[in-house]
């Protein structure tokens, strides 16, 4: 099954500079599992959306879902 992962410019350093990835998965995978498998470290994940809706990390993906991962925002 295909899903799509989008990362912003801050996180692309973990995905070989790619901001849009097409990922083939088999079986039930969660949004967090796919994000982590793409190389984004857990401590860098602020939150995840699927198809434009904020989801828990244990959201189980469906065919053609679009995952977007947002970094933790640090202020100063």
Describe the overall structure.
This protein is mainly beta and 76 residues long. The chain has a single domain, classed as Ubiquitin-like (UB roll). Helix content is 9%, strand content 34%. The protein is built from 1 helix and 5 strands; from the N terminus they run ββαβββ. The protein has one helix at 31-37; strands at residues 2-7, 20-24, 45-50, 53-55, 66-71. A 5-stranded mixed β-sheet has the order 2-1-5-3-4, covered by helices on one side. The model has no long low-confidence stretch (mean pLDDT 94).
Outline:
This protein has one helix and five strands.
Question: Describe the biggest sheet?
Answer: 5 strands, mixed
**Total E-strand runs:** 5
Find the structural class using helix and strand composition: mainly beta
CATH homologous superfamily title: Beta-grasp domain
> Helical element count?
1
Specify the helix fraction band. Answer: under 10%
CATH topology grouping: Ubiquitin-like (UB roll)
